[in-house]
Amino acid sequence: MKIYGIPQSRAARCLWMARELGIPHENVPVHFKDTKGSPELLKANPNARIPALETDDGFTLFESMAINLYLAKKHGGPLAPASLEEDAVATQWSFWVMTEIEKPVLLVLLHTIGMAPAEDAALEKARADLQRPLGVLDRELAGKEWLMGGRFTVADLNVACVLAWAKGARIDLGPFPNVAAWLGRCLARPAFKG
Q1: Angle 64-75/11-21 helices, nearest 10 degrees?
Q2: DSSP string of the chain?
Q3: How confident is the prediction for the chain on average, in pLDDT?
Q4: 191 burial class (0-12, 13-18, 19+ CB within 10 angstroms)?
Q5: Residues 93 and 149 in one domain
Q6: How far apart, in whole angstroms, are the C-alpha atoms of residue 28 and residue 145?
Q7: pLDDT for res 120
Q8: Cα separation of 74 and 9, whole Å?
Q9: How far is Cα 2 from Cα 145, in angstroms, rounded to an integer?
Q10: Is the pLDDT of residue 154 over 80?
């Protein structure tokens, strides 16, 4: 199995999933600036974006969350949804983090690391836009360690891989203690550190 992309991109999500599942894989290090120059990537993702997955039998898939949901379901184990309802919840949280969290946290991150300076008003709006969804997640995690099923699953991985950017963006999670504790548990996993 090949995962196209560099670890400093959204491909990190898929690499983390492959390590969690213990799946042998090759990381083909296509930089996001060079995607149009990679004919192999273009076969796996005609949109010329990373990440993309290519299995040993030629199946291709793009979009990091779709890749992770597919890998969890295909390879089973504790990360996989155990029922139709868990599958729906994993999909729900995966869509949620992309629509509610990714854009504002990415704007703050890119500004913080100097890759894309933003105006003060845009930064303030991005930080303000995070308050409601972080509150939703904090309430969801009240009294439990993981998002579903009492175990670390693809839902946790998919949400945590986006929220991990909050650390580099220096976003204060202090007002959201359940989120901060949960994110700490997720990012302490050996497969993430790998």
Answers
A1: 10
A2: -EEES-TTSTHHHHHHHHHHHT---EEE---GGGGGG-HHHHHH-TT--S-EEE-TTS-EEESHHHHHHHHHHHH-STTS-SSHHHHHHHHHHHHHIIIIIIHHHHHHHHHHTTSS---HHHHHHHHHHHHHHHHHHHHHTTT-SSSBTTB--HHHHHHHHHHTHHHHTT---TT-HHHHHHHHHHHTSHHHH-
A3: 94
A4: middle
A5: yes
A6: 34
A7: 84
A8: 24
A9: 32
A10: yes
Same domain, 155 and 95: yes
Tokens of 1: 């199995």
Single-letter amino acid, residue 152:
F
Tokens, residue 117: 């300076």
Residues 46 and 138 in one domain: no
Residue with tokens 């969350």: 65
Structure tokens at 84: 């139709």
